[in-house]
Amino acid sequence: MDLEYNSSRNKLVISEYGRHIQKLVEHAMTLKNRNERQKMANGIIEIMGELNPQFRDIVDFKHKLWDHLFLISNFQLDVDSPYEKPVIEKLFEKPEPLAYPKNKIKYNHYGKVIELMIEEAIKMQDNELKNKLIVAIANQMKKSYVNWNLDTVDDEIIFNQLAKLSNKKLHIPEGTELFKFMPNPKQQYARKKKKNNRNHRNQKIK
After folding, report:
1. 108 burial class (0-12, 13-18, 19+ CB within 10 angstroms)?
2. Alpha-carbon distance 112 to 134, whole Å?
3. How confident is the model over 177-191, as pLDDT tens digits?
4. How far is it, in rounded angstroms, from Cα 47 to Cα 62?
5. 49, 67, 156, 176: which sits with the fewest CB atoms below 10 Å from its CB?
6. Max alpha carbon distance in the chain (Å)?
């Protein structure tokens, strides 16, 4: 059996998918029968999704997978996509710079997106859908709070801050319990270590 060395392999186009996916794409490109090629492309997309479940949090993640498939094939794979095929120039063009928010954010750890979601929730007329959005906002606030402060937080604090951000126009449905989010212990340890080192340096200066 001949060994295959890294130096003799084609360069990985998107490393997150690994060499096996790239080889499957390269094989699909050699298939002359279009139906077989299409069937294999669909199968590759499913595998790519399983290998990268984090994409499921991205809006229209299947579209992203198809864009990556064409990118891996250097846009040479001739198959039908459920989406408009990407244009290479568009994929690599620099995005327009984001406008700096003019209004001051009340809580930095929640960011502007939460405030925009609250504004939309206030406008909603469908009470059932509105309540679901309010709970979703509160859960995201709690998650952001824990990630930022590396500490747990009572639901009541989140409820109070939601009321403040919405000028008391949004209220959590009675009996709501938010998801439990725990701070990352590695991040907690790193921050504690950094704080101890800073205190130690300050003591030396004194």
Report:
1. exposed
2. 16
3. 999 988 888 777 777
4. 12
5. 156
6. 78
